[in-house]
Amino acid sequence: MDNQFSLQGKVAVVTGATRGLGQGMAVGLAKAGADIIGVGFSEQTETKTIIEDLGRKFYEINADLSKQDELASVVQEAINKTGRVDILINNAGIIRREQAENFSDQDWDDVVDVNLSAVFRLTRDFGKHMIENGSGKIINIASMLSFQGGMKVPAYSATKHGVAGLTKSFANEWASKGINVNAIAPGYMATDNTAPLRADKDRNAYITSRIPQSEWGTPEDLAGPAVFLASESARYVNGHILCVDGGWMGS
Ligand code: NAD
To answer: Where are the domains of the chain?
Structure first.
């Protein structure tokens, strides 16, 4: 039987592949056969080692995705390195926590720049390249806060709602051009991003009690869903937001 989940011969760009969910998905795609271009603003040594040990190529691009002028060169550099990009995972994201009435302009701008503006620009520019190739898979990383408001995270929630909107908007325009644009909405996953929540004993206990699977997810839990959406198995899936959340959204 053909392996409909194989990514053999494909090249995937993963932003924020240094650690956490980005690393989990990059490793998953590499296990399925893809070479990886990691985009990040710190050393990606650990991810590079894991992927090369799997026998796949790892290319590193250093860029600060909050800086508009660095985004265009990311696209060009990626295409120059491999000649072709088949898969884009817009994973890099940040969160700032503060009471809504005290939330600063600076925090708002910082979160919007990375979580929303960079996703828009990278999707637009890699998408143009994919349209020329006649195929491509784009996976945006959304959140439970693409559906809910959350507490003390107005910018994060607004941008993740925006990511859901961008996903559907690009899918509408590009589905007929051979491009699949989908999103994964992770639930509560154990990474640096959520370390403060897990450090708060009461909050941690409350969150865990509300997850039907009674445990936080891990970066590895996103590998399979990412491989699925990046593969030909997802040929007829477009504009979808796939919750990977231990049952949270249904509860
Ligand atoms: P993380 O903080 O562990 O990793 C974030 C990654 O993004 C890092 O590699 C970091 O270097 C990179 N990054 C941040 N700002 C950047 C910038 N300006 N330029 C380049 N790279 C930058 O976080 P994570 O938990 O792995 O989150 C990954 C994605 O998943 C984010 O979009 C986050 O919003 C989303 N998410 C996480 C959870 C969770 O529970 N952890 C839940 C839902 C959604």
So the answer is: 2-250
